[in-house]
UniProtKB/TrEMBL annotation:
<feature type="transmembrane region" description="Helical">
    <location>
        <begin position="282"/>
        <end position="307"/>
    </location>
</feature>
<feature type="domain" description="MotA/TolQ/ExbB proton channel">
    <location>
        <begin position="337"/>
        <end position="443"/>
    </location>
</feature>
<comment type="similarity">
    <text>Belongs to the exbB/tolQ family.</text>
</comment>
<dbReference type="InterPro" id="IPR017270">
    <property type="entry name" value="MotA/TolQ/ExbB-rel"/>
</dbReference>
<dbReference type="InterPro" id="IPR050790">
    <property type="entry name" value="ExbB/TolQ_transport"/>
</dbReference>
<keyword id="KW-0472">Membrane</keyword>
<dbReference type="Pfam" id="PF01618">
    <property type="entry name" value="MotA_ExbB"/>
</dbReference>
<keyword id="KW-0812">Transmembrane</keyword>
<dbReference type="GO" id="GO:0017038">
    <property type="term" value="P:protein import"/>
</dbReference>
<keyword id="KW-0813">Transport</keyword>
<keyword id="KW-0175">Coiled coil</keyword>
<dbReference type="GO" id="GO:0005886">
    <property type="term" value="C:plasma membrane"/>
</dbReference>
<keyword id="KW-1133">Transmembrane helix</keyword>
<feature type="coiled-coil region">
    <location>
        <begin position="46"/>
        <end position="97"/>
    </location>
</feature>
<keyword id="KW-1003">Cell membrane</keyword>
<feature type="transmembrane region" description="Helical">
    <location>
        <begin position="364"/>
        <end position="386"/>
    </location>
</feature>
<dbReference type="InterPro" id="IPR002898">
    <property type="entry name" value="MotA_ExbB_proton_chnl"/>
</dbReference>
Amino acid sequence: MSMKPMKLLISAALTLGLVAGAQAAPKPQDPINLDQLLEQLEQGKYAQSEENKARLERFRQQEQEQKQMLRDAIAQREALEQQASDLETRFEGNETKLGNLQDTLTQSMGSLKELFGVLQQVTNDAAGSFQNSVISAQYPGRADELKQLSEQISNSSKLASIEDIEKVWLALQKEMTESGKIAEFSASVIEADGEKEVEDVVRVGSFNLVSDGAYLEYNASTGNIAELVRQPAGRFTESAEELQDASNGVVTFGLDPTGGSILGLLVQAPSLKERVDQGGTVGYIILGLGLIGLLIALERFVSLMLIGNKVKRQLKAPQPKEDNPLGRVMLIKDKFPDADTETLELKLSEGILREVPKITRNLTFIKIISVVAPLMGLLGTVTGMINTFQAITLFGTGDPKMMAGGISQALVTTVLGLVVAIPMTLLFAMLHTRSKNMIHILQEQASGIIAERSERGE
């Protein structure tokens, strides 16, 4: 045997030995010579053959088990397919039967189904109405209960019960009953200054809430009761005080049947001071002229009344006095006892002319104010219209509020001018008549004195 085949044999033997040694449990001893190596190779080959036989046997057993499992799985699949087919057939039959039963139920319900549809609609409408009603300020949570009931009716496949129908009926009946009552209850009220206090609130049906002589508003979204920052005219707040103080009987009260709409408009209506402020500078000038004219007229009225009383007393007195115009005119004849008729007439005319300025003093100013006031109003009207047209030029006619200021000034100044001019005209006419009557008395008495002197001279 040559060396090269021997080396290959030794290498193969070593490789098989290593493999067999790795698989064998006990590690053999290292060979000493070639005979031991050959013996070990034969033993390893035998052990490997036995192991391969055992492994092949296991593979055959597992193949039989897997074939049995496959047969079982196929049988189970066929059984499940048959069961699914049976269930599908049963489902189709049940669906047909359910459709027939549903049609029978619909036909049986008839108008009853329409009734419960109306019940749901009424429940929704009542919930919306209760949410905005001032009665909810005293009885909160009513709208939420009806909303839950409406959702329950709509989401349930069953018909509403008698108890549900009675709940809706009782809620509507309570709303109608409370709408005709005047009730008092304690509640937390947000005052105009922002403070929150517990007060006694009077509810007038489903229309208004009042407390401490002030009107209140109910905020449906938050459930708060707040005092109106701006109250209506005094006669309405006075009626609110009378209502809260009254224990029985009939009381006059400013009721808002719209639930707050009219009250909101009354609150937004400008007061007298605000209307005057809309007149601007021209309006204040007109009012100033009116005040001056009123003071002058008042002074003239008092003076003419005092002078008139003195003149009336002088007409009844036998002796003339110097504390009145008539007495001073009558004293002229005593100062010139020897004057002829023409001279005395001139002296009396002079005396009357001397008294006329005192009697008619400042009446011309009243007349001037009565003429100037409407002209000032016209000036304010023109100024307001100029402002209006400027607003239209800058912002257009899309927003009426931009033009409201100029129009308000135009109208308010016109009104103020007429308000001042009309009384001034009437006062001037009255005072002018009084003064003319007084001058007429002086002229009449002077004519009598001249006639008496003329008769005496003849």
